[in-house]
Amino acid sequence: PNRTNNSSFLLKKTEIWTRQFISVTVTFARHRMKLMQIDFTGNSVLVTGAVGGIGRTIAHSFAARGAIVFATDILADGLNETVASAAPTNGGTIVARPLDITDFAAVSGLVSGIEGTSNRRQIVIAVHAAGGVKGQNAQFIEDVTNEEWASIFEVNVNGAFNVVKSVTPGMKRE
Question: CA–CA separation, 134 vs 156, rounded Å?
Fold first, then answer.
């Protein structure tokens, strides 16, 4: 009888805890990076999910340390904001590339193109920040359809595989 009320409370609490955890994690990462002052000048970095908060922050952090960041996301319009809000230094830059990571041919084609034109000739760092629950965060598990689950799995698991499989040969050539 109280399924909706209890579940809503738990979902809200979980969402608050998740936001706090992400906030603390990002703050900690920024603090650690300030202490370490790592230089990535001239290195090619691929970041998926670069429109979202974590992906965008990671892309900005690498560009601020001199990296050539290839920021990707399926949300092409949001990539413009990722580029516009960056403050790259030491020759760093962010290059926006719309990408559906569930399409292996598109991922491997993008990686091949980057390796053919970048200064370092291969991607030395790949960050897979794309993913999520595709709008299903307020649903009961029994209400998520098999098609919705397949879509979530496709991005979170198969998308990560597509990225790793595409960048690994270039990383091994280093």
Answer: 10
